[in-house]
Amino acid sequence: MTSKGLSAASKQPEIIAVANQKGGVGKTTTAINLATALAAIKKDVLIIDMDPQGNASTGLGRERNDRAHSSYEVIMGEVSLAEAIVDTAVPGLHLVPSTIDLTGAEIELVNQDQRTFRLRRAFRDPVLENYDYVLIDCPPSLNLLTLNTLAASHSVLVPLQCEFFALEGLSLLLQTIETVKANFNPSLKIGGIILTMFDKRNNLSEQVAIDVRNYLGEQVFDTIIPRNVRVSEAPSHGKPVLLYDLKCSGSQAYLELAAELLKRYNANKKE
Fold this sequence. Notes:
- By secondary structure, the chain is α/β, with parallel strands linked by helices.
- It is 41% helix and 17% strand.
- The chain has helices at 27-40, 55-59, 71-75, 81-84, 105-109, 118-122, 144-152, 166-183, 203-216, 229-233, 241-244, 249-270; strands at 14-18, 45-49, 86-87, 93-96, 133-137, 155-161, 189-198, 220-226.
- Helix 9 links the parallel strand 7 and strand 8 (220-226).
- Helix 1 packs across helix 12.
- The longest helix is centred in the last third of the chain and has 22 residues, at 249-270.
């Protein structure tokens, strides 16, 4: 486990859920590579893998047999957040890995008090003062793990694949976010919609991008993540694409997205 010394001046990180109940939209890929891009521009970043599949952990090089503690133990109150944090190959980027044990967390939490606020409680740990950004990779479903994440976050980033049913699934997620705001976390905001897997050779991708921008306006990031084979290959090597191939179009897009996110969040803080 890593333990960076607490700074003298306390800082509060921006806690961001990366969520979409639809699988295969680039959610985990976005969480990994956005976190890496933020670290590359000298931000201290923690990524928390809340998906039982553990793909964010694997994609950052943490093998399944090398996860002494996990987000399951954190949410169940068995270990502190600080105890579960591990290093990654990316300077400035740390990880709370996931294990398959998370699949049982929802059942175990059903009859417990404050079951929606277990992650928020874990975030009382002063170790968070080490970080500028905390990114949480949600499971691809609107379950109790996702609700815990949304209840503990300041904002939500929504990766949205440029395909035919994109808006249909997005509407359900936006409804869920409004429900969480009304019942659990009044300050939760939509941090932005990220268009992913964009294929410039496909007219449908262009039309979906236009439709989403017409529907959600400025909530949609200007940066678009292209469909890129190097992005797809990187997880099998246990690396973010920025380490696998910095010069590819996918890596450059995530660096642009990180810069745009910083600009957007800094502007919001000034308001």
